Amino acid sequence: MPDKDTKATMGTEDTPGSKASPEPQDLRPRVFRSIKFFVLCHSALQLAQLMISGYLKSSISTVEKRFGLSSQTSGLLAAFNEVGNTALIVFVSYFGSRVHRPRMIGYGAVLVALAGLLMTLPHFISEPYRYDHSSPEDMPQDMEASLCLPTTLAPAPIPSNGSCSSNTETKHLTVVGIMFIAQTLLGVGGVPIQPFGISYIDDFAHHSNSPLYLGILFAVTMLGPGMAYGLGSLMLRLYVDIDRMPEGGISLTSKDPRWVGAWWLGFLISAAMVALAASPYFFFPREMPKEKHELRFRRKFLAGPASPVSKGEDSSSEQSPGESLKQQEGLAQIAPDLTVLQFIKVFPRVLLRTLRHPIFLLVVLSQVCMSCMVAGMATFLPKFLERQFSVTASFANLLIGCLIIPLAMVGIVVGGVLVKRLHLGPLHSGVLCLLGALFCLLFSLPLFFIGCSTHQIAGVTSGPGSQPGQGLLPNCAEPCSCSSDGFNPVCDTRAHVEYITPCHAGCTGRVVQEALGKSQVFYTNCSCVVGDSPVSAGSCDSACSHLVLPFVVLVSLGAAMASVTHTPSFMLILRGVKKEDKTLAVGMQFMLLRVLAWMPSPVIHGTAIDTTCIHWALSCGRRAVCRYYDHDLLRNRFIGLQFFFKTGSLVCFTLVLAILRQQNKEMGSEVTASSPGLEQQLLASEPEKKSEDSRV
């Protein structure tokens, strides 16, 4: 009730510059002139935007199987999200204060939603998924076509490129091109959302409430990647063609290597959430009344017995309006008052000046190494868990969303709390970064030994009557006319040998057994199996599937240790450059992270994974998706690449600490050589530095 009068006068008195007339503001609902409601809307929007941006990573192996993509191509597809973002971020930063920020956020969010819908288009324009290419289209899949039939009775084998035509290749290129365009638009649409939202909150929130609002915003949006993996876990349990199921149903389960989940459904749900969250932004004003009062619970909290900290914060908050004015004036001199040509002329000089700071350069390089590790793991860890431990895509996403991402969030919070509570300066922040990188590296060492070798695959690795590299067809199945591109794996559980199709195992019969409401398919009369015992449909289970939890726990602990370095490394960047260059330094940091880490890392990891493939599926004479990997080689190269980037980060932080110690020694020698009065003056200014560090 006491705020009624103040709210009534806010529309006329507190509008910055009194540019906007009160009439159009009065027509808006009061809720759209509340910065608290803007924080709520922006939290929901960034949560939905991060969900749709991260969803592809949760279904990357499914998209590969559905459209016959290599890991290198899928890594490039994931990286294209950053291409559009990086290309436009400089222009957005330059024109940020000259546009209607809420509307620009709304337009960007609408573009993100449309890009999400475009990402689902390949599902609707493609033919229904056929998981058994050895059977003709007019026959039920998994039927007689994949059995061993004498050459005289079997239909003439169709070569792998016999059903190909220019139309088929054009369709494939169209589908892949649509996904690349959609990923680029996802990045372009996300450009204005975060920077415009943060600056809008900082401009119109009370100077004491702004850090709290931004903290709430970041805390909520950190849940986005975890929710993306959770959504992927749910959607990939559903069959891809759930909207157009065949009449006789399907005989696949989610454990079958040919299973493809409903990857497109997650994009539809995420796009709908983004569109819903975008709608309020078209009703927010360009400038809203600045918040006049500090939050009540914040006042009560700061008025408590913690006098030393609260006094420091209060005194700093009294100075902050003047400081913010100076900062605004400085930014105004850098960007809004300059023309585009002047900005281009000034930029290289300031860029070189910033890059000459060794602390800034080394910290950014260490963050590039960490980001390369994170980008590769976020993109391909679900696929790695599927292949290495024979778990379903749904379960792999569930583990990442429930263990790894929450522990990484905890690591970021712990790093921030340590910097705040212990009043860490640059030197101690460097020590914390070094310890975090060191423990992250140590937790990754056991990962090289958690896993097992690829089981025997007849004709691919080793099997009865054949040697590795001899071809797909074992000698015992030579009387059969087996399709060269068929893929319907069966497992001889006694010998733990896998065959690519029942035909390659020499099986002539098929039996379906019903047990506990589930049907299990067995193939009988198999000439390549000792004792002619039946073989079960599906790949052989991994001998080390029970090790998936210890593996994920170690990865989670390593991610938490790496996340601890986030806040102190950011502090080192702010302390390593001149005051007037801080804004540009932070912008350059994010630019370098995108260009050097988030864009190339998925491609590098995908290429490394492709080099471990031992059996490719062919589509129209070209290599499509990989069906079997050398598990030992896959583990060593994937974890080795992660280990390489973690080592690079550790080396950079070690050099940073050495430079900081050298600088402290030089400052100490200067202080002792100078007058005692100067030494007392430096000691007296130490508490002020601590309070400033804790605020940042």
Description of the molecule:
A hairpin with a 4-residue loop joins strand 2 and strand 3. The protein has helices at 4-13, 22-27, 35-58, 60-67, 71-94, 101-125, 166-189, 193-204, 210-221, 223-235, 263-278, 296-302, 307-334, 340-355, 358-389, 393-421, 426-444, 548-564, 566-576, 582-598, 600-610, 631-673, 676-695; strands spanning 456-457, 490-492, 497-499, 509-515, 518-524, 535-537, 613-619, 622-629. The two termini are 35 Å apart. It has 696 residues and is mainly alpha-helical. The longest helix has 43 residues, at 631-673. Helix 6 (101-125) packs antiparallel against helix 8 and helix 17 packs antiparallel against helix 18 (548-564). The strands form two sheets. The chain has a six-stranded mixed beta sheet, with no helix packed on it. A two-stranded antiparallel ribbon has the order 7-8. It comes from Castor canadensis. This is Solute carrier organic anion transporter family member 2B1 isoform X2.
